[in-house]
Amino acid sequence: MLDFFSTIGGAIMAPLYYVISAVLVGFHKLFGSVFGPETGIAWVLSIIGLTLVIRMALIPLFVKQIKSSRNMQLIQPKVRELQKKYGHDRERLAQETMKLYKDSGTNPFASCLPILLQMPIFLALFRLIDQAAKNPQDPKGLMTVTLNEQFGDAVFLGAKISDTFLNTDDIGVRVLAAVLVLAMTATTFLTQRQLMSKNMPADALSGPYAQQQKMLLYVLPVVFAVGGIAFPIGVLFYWTTSNLWTMGQQFYVIRNNPAPGTPAAAAKEDRDRAKAARKGQKTPAQIEEERLAAEAEARRAEKSDTRQQPQRQSKSQRSKKKR
């Protein structure tokens, strides 16, 4: 039975081995020609190059994730209203909530897609490194025996790319692995923190979605820290580079296209106002504010004119005034 599932798993992962090894070998030819094919720097840069290619391919999913996350934030007040209205009827609450998601174009699971899609890639890279270190005579994908041997034996900053925190007694290797685990953990925490502190409206910070985000804020770094001590150095470079990409990409999106009613939106409006002032112009928000103020002033003037308009008098009232 185990052999059956192993065969099925291998068949599923085989295409990934070819894709990942093709990108890895391509970058290795480039960097190997500069630093030497057996050097650790050539392989580390190849892993970083692989990471950047994967993250660029995932940009459409990241944009979808950001939009879905924004929609989830904006509809939280409506979700809370549904909970108050149908809290006694779980089935009706679930139906109305799913209807709200559908009407607003929100997918509550979209925020998990980039991570879920990266996990098979992560596992495939893990297996490539592990295979290169333990069984170089059985290459996977486009890796050859020679490349496997170079990959498994490549040394970077005194540590083999295939080394982990647990499989060595070398203090230098453990220090490097610990630094990379801490970097991976810290970047995971800061990425989630950046989203919550800058791009979540105040009224969304107390709902179930906010509780979910807070849980992920503290649980994910712990999971990565615990699991990271068993990751090869090469995999730690992959995941840390991926996290740094996410931080930069998320910073750009939040800065330039923040969710309404968030600290990021207020900061963007301040920047737009300052930029417009330097050019002697007005921002769209200022123009809208002036339009609304003018409309309010016109309504007040209209009400004032209505109150001051003289009332019609009867003939007897007018004759009494003449006397």
UniProtKB/TrEMBL annotation:
Residue ranges with Basic and acidic residues bias: 288-306
Region (Disordered): 261-323
Topology versus the membrane: Multi-pass membrane protein
Keyword Hydrolase: no
Segments traversing the membrane: 7-28, 40-63, 108-129, 171-190, 215-239
Main location: membrane
Alphabetical keyword list: Cell membrane, Chaperone, Membrane, Protein transport, Transmembrane, Transmembrane helix, Transport
All copies of domain Membrane insertase YidC/Oxa/ALB C-terminal, residue ranges: 43-254
Cell compartments where the protein resides: Cell membrane; Membrane
Family annotation (Pfam families): 60KD_IMP
Its biological purpose: Required for the insertion and/or proper folding and/or complex formation of integral membrane proteins into the membrane. Involved in integration of membrane proteins that insert both dependently and independently of the Sec translocase complex, as well as at least some lipoproteins. Aids folding of multispanning membrane proteins.
PANTHER family: CYTOCHROME C OXIDASE ASSEMBLY PROTEIN COX18, MITOCHONDRIAL, OXA1
Known partners and oligomeric status: Interacts with the Sec translocase complex via SecD. Specifically interacts with transmembrane segments of nascent integral membrane proteins during membrane integration.
UniProt family annotation: Belongs to the OXA1/ALB3/YidC family. Type 1 subfamily.
Protein name stated in the entry: Membrane protein insertase YidC
Natural source organism: Nocardioides cavernae
Gene field: yidC
